[in-house]
Amino acid sequence: MLKERIDIETIDGQLFEIKVIEPDDSKPASFTHYLQNHKNGVSQFYKKDALAFVKEILEKEYPKEEITNKVAENALQYLIFDFKKSVPFPAPEKPKFKFIDLFAGIGGFRLAFQNLEGKCVFTSEWDKYSKQTYKANFGEIPFGDITKPETKNYIPDNFDVLCAGFPCQAFSIAGRRGGFEDTRGTLFFDVAEIIKNKQPKAIFLENVKGLRNHDKGKTLTTILNVLREDLNYYVPEPQILNAKEFGVPQNRERIFIVGFRKDLGITDFQYPEPTNENAVLDDILEQEEVSVKYYLSTTYVQTLKNHRARHESKGNGFGYEIIPNDGTANAVVCGGMGRERNLVLDDRLTNFVPVTHITGKVNREGIRKMTPREWARLQGFPDNFKIIVSDAQAYKQFGNSVAVPAIQATAEKIIEKLNFK
């Protein structure tokens, strides 16, 4: 069973531990969403469960006391005051617009939109480790599985922008027109259903570059048909943007889909132009000596060399890659050869004693993996973004994340069109 630790300050200043037994328990998410939204009218969607959560906490902490609804209400209001002290990325005090963050991961969309003075009023993410990172940085626990009606019921009304980096799935559209109903059973259907019910002013969807040709182009055609015809949004032709053109040294191409509700009268949209900031790998590398654990063993280096040689003999270009300091990293991904295709040379190591179990010795060529912090920088996350999970989880989280600068550049164009004052 999943157990998450949530520290909350009680009225008498003590800290205590709450264990959330069910992975999809919505009460902790409601509690943190209430604290984040108590000033903007959205709190009504979360207050009931937030009160129940606080009451449960107090009853466990003070079993001999009678905890009335009034006591829970007072405790809830008290907790608001000190809430944002330890959050690296609090919401803006006077936000200009509201957005929701679906398939949120570790908050790349949120970071970008908060930088533009937006207020996130709902977030969902199913991965428990990503939830931990999200909470550590934004002070909010995402709701769980967005495919469940009970999760969708927590989404408030009257937000401005829907953000979603949804996973790509094929649709069964043979012989049909490929409309809204034909997307059932896919995660896009859940996004479309939310758009249909909530009618946000704008939508911003992100996906892998391969979506353009996925299922011979049928998947993207269906998505655009649903957005344009069934949901009545103006959706310009999607565009593939590369993170390396927006100030980070990573060759990462992703497809962006932007849309506006047709009654707003927006009939044109220009995706952002490249910033021409020529970042190179050296800009994101650690300034100090890194742990020996990131250096490859002699045995593994030889394995990688043999692996590449086999592929080269067959005319393939597949294999490990060492990125020069004045070069651009390959896309960081969580599977396959993600780390091995982004190796670096770093001769600053002074202690070659392994701190993990390896076969062979630590290589003397200076070949090492990038650190999780270097991956974070490749994705445009600032250095005060907290990494609180294991290296394995951190690589997965940053590999699955969006590149924040490219998202923010596009978000800025969206907000300009919506003309928030």
From TrEMBL:
Coiled-coil annotated residue ranges, if any: none
UniProt entry tagged with the keyword Kinase: no
Transmembrane segments: none
InterPro entries the record matches: C5-MTase, C5_DNA_meth_AS, C5_MeTfrase, SAM-dependent_MTases_sf
Reactions listed under catalytic activity: a 2'-deoxycytidine in DNA + S-adenosyl-L-methionine = a 5-methyl-2'-deoxycytidine in DNA + S-adenosyl-L-homocysteine + H(+)
Active site: 168
Molecular function (Gene Ontology), one example: DNA (cytosine-5-)-methyltransferase activity
Pfam families: DNA_methylase
Keyword Nucleus: no
GO biological process, one term: methylation
EC number(s) per entry: 2.1.1.37
Key words of the record: Methyltransferase, Restriction system, S-adenosyl-L-methionine, Transferase
Membership in a protein family: Belongs to the class I-like SAM-binding methyltransferase superfamily. C5-methyltransferase family.
Record protein name field: Cytosine-specific methyltransferase
